[in-house]
């Protein structure tokens, strides 16, 4: 499989702290690549650097579909097909649910009116967000539905590569099953997925390969079952074999 995303020597420091340190790896088109690692190991910062939301890298290259994007604007990156979600539910609280989706679609794709509504409906159906909630203020939605809305908003922007940052955090078991099933469904529509997750059974169930970070560096990358048996991964993250 050809690489859809190639990252080379990506680095970001906050003062003396090197949050992402010379990270290099490639993502194959069509795969789900899981990303694990202890708190503070640089996973979310890596997503920031790829999407440039809210900031880019100090140095290193990000190549998406053969084009350098590490100095492109966040909007250009989104328009090229790289869309991220956030660990915390990130919705515009004062807007209705449908307007959350429509604002993002207009911002990223420059599409309004009936075509934007069609994309919103299609994305809502795909992730299972109930369309009868569309006109409710996003702020009134329980956490699970805010997460669904955040995902529907991402999907409506027609991602080729979706960066999912802990989609299962603060969810209960049957909701985590929705996350798993939806990730698989989205991947089957052709979307390549990078998935940061602490819920290990979920990560293991959906990832074709697993990348593990520790203190800003990649310490393992490969077959999930093999990676989780590596001594350094057990010591840095798992505590004990899974
Ligand atoms: N904007 C920032 N300013 C200063 N330090 C930051 C900033 N963002 C992240 N950091 C630091 O960079 C390091 C990596 O943080 P990051 O959020 O990427 O880790 P993470 O692996 O996603 O952690 P978690 O699993 O807890 O979400 C941490 O030490 C964090 O405190």
Automatic annotation (TrEMBL):
Q: Which UniProt keywords apply?
A: ATP-binding, Nucleotide-binding, Transport
Q: Identify the InterPro entries for this entry.
A: AAA+_ATPase, ABC_AA/LPS_Transport, ABC_transporter-like_ATP-bd, BCA_ABC_TP_C, P-loop_NTPase
Single GO molecular function:
ATP hydrolysis activity
Would I find Transcription among this entry's keywords? no
The record's Gene3D superfamilies line, in alphabetical order, gives:
P-loop containing nucleotide triphosphate hydrolases
Q: Where is each ABC transporter domain found?
A: 5-240
Biological processes, Gene Ontology terms = D-alanine transmembrane transport; L-alanine transport; L-isoleucine import across plasma membrane; L-valine import across plasma membrane
Can you list the GO cellular component terms from the UniProt entry? plasma membrane
Tell me which Pfam families the record gives. Answer: ABC_tran, BCA_ABC_TP_C
Q: Which SMART domains match?
A: AAA (SM00382)
Task: Tell me the PANTHER family matching this sequence.
Answer: AMINO ACID ABC TRANSPORTER ATP-BINDING PROTEIN, CONSERVED COMPONENT OF ABC TRANSPORTER FOR NATURAL AMINO ACIDS-RELATED
Name of the protein described by the UniProt record: ATP-binding cassette domain-containing protein
Q: Which organism is it from?
A: Flavimaribacter sediminis
């Amino acid at each position: 499989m050809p690489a859809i995303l190639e990252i080379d020597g990506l680095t970001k420091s906050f003062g003396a702290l090197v949050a992402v340190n010379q990270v290099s790896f490639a993502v194959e088109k069509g795969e789900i690549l899981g990303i694990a690692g202890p708190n503070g190991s640089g996973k979310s910062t890596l997503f920031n650097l790829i999407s440039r939301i809210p900031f880019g890298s100090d140095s290193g290259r990000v190549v998406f579909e053969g084009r350098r994007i590490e100095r492109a604007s966040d909007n250009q990156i989104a328009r090229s097909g790289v869309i991220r979600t956030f660990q915390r539910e990130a919705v515009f609280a004062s807007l209705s649910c449908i307007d959350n989706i429509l604002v993002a679609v207009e911002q990223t794709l420059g599409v309004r009116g009936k075509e934007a509504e069609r994309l919103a409906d299609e994305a809502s159906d795909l992730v299972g967000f109930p369309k009868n909630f569309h006109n409710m203020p996003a702020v009134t939605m329980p956490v699970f539905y805010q997460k669904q809305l955040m995902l529907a908003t991402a999907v409506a922007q027609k991602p080729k590569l979706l960066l999912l940052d802990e989609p299962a955090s603060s969810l209960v078991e049957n909701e985590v099953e929705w996350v798993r099933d939806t990730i698989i469904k989205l991947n089957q529509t052709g979307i390549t997925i990078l998935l940061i997750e602490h819920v290990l059974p979920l990560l293991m169930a959906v990832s074709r390969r697993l990348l593990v970070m520790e203190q800003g560096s990649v310490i393992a990358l490969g077959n999930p079952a093999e990676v989780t048996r590596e001594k350094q991964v057990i010591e840095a993250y798992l505590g004990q074999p899974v």
